[in-house]
Amino acid sequence: MSERKLSQEDIQLLNFVEKATGAAAIDVISEGNAIVFVVAKGQFGRAIGKAGANIQKLRRMMPGKEVEIVEEASDVKELLTHALSPAMLKGIEQNEKGEVLVSVDPKSKGLAIGKGGERIKRARLLAKRLFGVAEVRVL
């Protein structure tokens, strides 16, 4: 994983999520009105909560913010699988230029890209921050 620095505000957000959900939050990316929290492996279910109760609570506590939770991954392929869920991915390959190409089932391409390209944009930010990936493209 790449070296990353957390600001004081990032640390406060991570502590906030840990207190609100009981899940170990290890990273956060704030982009526009979206906040993506990365939780430790095995903590995704706890972060979301039974029937989505914890994620809904976070969204109520952070009005105007689009809150997402992604589980920590050991490699970029696993990270993108988590970040682009629930899109049905057919394959993920990294080329010699450092680009990651994600093949998506045509029926779920819209899910992978997201409204206005927001989901893929956040996946790119996570891949760059956590694994130093230059580019992520959906095919």
Describe this structure as you would to a colleague.
The protein has 139 residues and is α/β, with parallel strands linked by helices. It has two domains: 8-71, 2-Layer Sandwich (GMP Synthetase, Chain A, domain 3); 76-138, K homology (KH) domain (GMP Synthetase, Chain A, domain 3), CATH 3.30.300.20. Helices cover 40% and strands 25% of the residues. The protein has six helices and six strands; from the N terminus they run H-E-E-H-H-E-H-E-E-H-H-E. The chain has helices at residues 8-21, 44-48, 53-61, 76-83, 109-113, 118-131, and strands at residues 25-31, 34-39, 66-71, 89-94, 99-104, 135-138. The strands form two sheets. Strands 1-2-3 form a three-stranded mixed β-sheet, sandwiched between helices. Strands 4-5-6 form a three-stranded mixed β-sheet. A hairpin with a 2-residue loop joins strand 1 (25-31) and strand 2. Helix 4 (76-83) packs antiparallel against helix 6 (118-131). The longest helix is centred in the first third of the chain and has 14 residues, at 8-21. The model has no long low-confidence stretch (mean pLDDT 91).
